[in-house]
Amino acid sequence: MGQAKITNPDRQKSTEKTEAILEGAMGEFLTHGYAATSMDRVAAAAGVSKATVYSHFQDKESLFTGLIQRLMSGRYKTILGLENPQLLQGEPSIVLRNIANNMLDNTMNNHQLQSFMRVIVGESGRFPELAQPYVKTIAKPVIELLSQYLGSCSELKLTDPEATARVFMGTLIYYVILQEVMYGKDILPMEQDRIIDTLVGLIVGERTTAH
After folding, report:
1. Range of the domain at 189
2. Residue 149 belongs to some domain of the structure
3. Residues 99 and 146 placed together within one structural domain of the fold
4. 10 Å Cβ neighbour count for 50?
5. What is the pLDDT of residues 51-72, one digit of tens each?
6. Does 66 lie in the same domain as 30?
7. Residues 40 and 91 in one domain
8. Residue 26 in domain
9. Which of 121, 130, 194, 201 lies 20 to 30 Å from 175 when distance is taken between CA atoms?
10. Average pLDDT score over residue span 120-135
11. Is there a single domain that holds both residue 44 and residue 88?
12. Sign of the C-alpha dihedral, residues 73, 170, 88, 163?
């Protein structure tokens, strides 16, 4: 007879409350912005007491940071395809095109992520501490990983792999910001394939748009 699986009800309840708080906080931050969101609002949105919110997150800044960390551990890894260790194996033209397509395919229609980007950009002037966790948790690991890959591709003969990685990711992020975050796709329309083909071509030296 198999042994019954032992679970910790208190730990499960704590995890559920953490998720509820993060979901409530996400809705409040996206609706009201960082400055206008209070821990009282978050508690009401999450359906928990204010004391419960503070037992999980010491202040509003740590709560916002928790949202960024959650974004990185879940959606953003999927968006970039980083959960697949084989992504950075293969010819540079294929690897870079796959990364770019993964990012844009999963970001251009992700309205919650776009709204979250608006909050970070819009509030970072008054609250620079909000942008720093994003840079440390999301931008830095991605740029470092891509820099290492580009540095290993001796055939590219890159003089500065890190700068190249920043150009690559910066172009893609700016494309999302200009087209979706700033609602510019009707003013400055540009097909995704054109951006990707040109960007990859600039790095690997291709002058074709073949996939």
Report:
1. 59-204
2. yes
3. yes
4. 14
5. 999 999 999 989 988 887 777 6
6. no
7. no
8. yes
9. 130
10. 80
11. no
12. negative
pLDDT value of residue 83: 61
Residue with tokens 């990364």: 99
Identify the CA nearest to 127 among candidates 54, 33, 23, 27. 33
By the 8 A CB rule, do 104 and 114 touch? no
Within 13 Å and on the Cβ side, how many CA atoms surround 3? 3
Domain count, the chain: 2
- With a pLDDT cut of 90, the percent of the chain lying above it is 46
Q: Per residue, what are the HEC states of the chain?
A: CCCCCCCCHHHHHHHHHHHHHHHHHHHHHHHHHHHHCCHHHHHHHHCCCHHHHHHHCCCHHHHHHHHHHHHHHHHHHHHHCCCCHHHHCCCHHHHHHHHHHHHHHHHCCCHHHHHHHHHHHHHCCCCHHHHHHHHHHHHHHHHHHHHHHHHHCHHHCCCCHHHHHHHHHHHHHHHHHHHHHCCCCCCCCCCHHHHHHHHHHHHHCCCCCCC
22 exposure class (CB count in 10 Å sphere: 0-12, 13-18, 19+) = buried
* Domain harbouring 14, CATH code: 1.10.10.60
pTM score above 0.85:
no
Q: The CATH number of the domain where 136 resides is what?
A: 1.10.357.10
Per-residue burial over 145-180, b if 16 or more Cβ lie within 10 Å, else e, is: bbbebbeebeebebeebeebbeebbeebeebbeebb
